[in-house]
Amino acid sequence: MQKLSPMLSSDKRAFYAQPEVVAAYDQQRFGSPSGSWVNVRELALVESLLPGGGRVLDLGAGTGRLSQRLRLHGYSVVALDSSFAMLQVTGQGKVPVVQADGFDLPFQAASFDAVAALRVAFHYADLSALLHAVRPVLREDGVFVFDTYRWTPRSLFALDAARWGSKVFVHRPADVEAAAKVAGYRVVAAQSAFLFSPYIYRRLPLAAVHVLGRLEEAIPSSLSARVFWALEPHAVSRGPNSGAP
Asked: What are 76's strand-pairing partners?
């Protein structure tokens, strides 16, 4: 199969490779009470979509916040990132780390019970390359968990780009489902969450965040800003005359 090229621009990779960006990453996003609330909820959402145990690849692990949680909960975790500076932080938490391109995974086929990519997919306009890269390393009963944006102001312009990096992308749920089918997956769960981008939550008082959390339960899920997906490998449909089962 021809290798698919990622659509992430080189400036994003360079941005997350900067030691000063890495040093400020967690504090900048999760350092306030509201930011901590977002962090806990994100991690819980991802874990709720994973199998109850097994070997998990944390793809785009960053500073390792998901890796550390999963390790503490009994998973066998491998943290992968292209940023050596990020992995220096992750590796301090007793998680095996691998510096590699997430679109050229250095693992044997069917190596993992699950792959999780938290805050990764929305850096790409087209999800096809990511979906195809992950598919071979998943076991047939495995699951790929990731999140996308339905909407965010950061898809329109880069807010405070020196601190947060360049723009991100939004993906319509119907487009994610279509891309998943083409890449050989079926959607087994799609959990909507957060009324706004975490960029906004981080700046709100914790009391306001709790109000938003309650409001989220009362409004249609289609109004939420993000979707957390769980995909399982599935045979690719080749049409009625292909002879495929």
From this structure: 55
- Can you tell me the distance from the alpha carbon of 194 to that of 138, in angstroms, rounded to the nearest whole number? 28
pLDDT digits 0-9 by tens, 14-59: 777 778 888 888 888 888 899 999 999 999 999 999 999 999 999 9
Beta strand spans in the chain (E): 55-59, 76-81, 97-99, 112-117, 138-149, 185-193, 226-233
d(CA 129, CA 148): 15
* pLDDT level of residue 243 (50, 70, 90 thresholds): very low
pTM: 0.88
What the chain holds in terms of domains, given with CATH numbers, is: 10-233 (3.40.50.150)
Measured CA to CA, the distance from residue 174 to residue 150 in angstroms comes to: 11
Q: Burial letters for 202-211: b for 16+ Cβ neighbours within 10 Å, e otherwise?
A: bebeeeebee
Indicate left, alpha or beta for 85 from its phi (over 0: left) and psi (-120 to 50: alpha). alpha
CA angle, 205 as apex, 117 and 60 as ends, to 5°? 10
Is the pLDDT assigned to residue 237 strictly greater than 70?
no
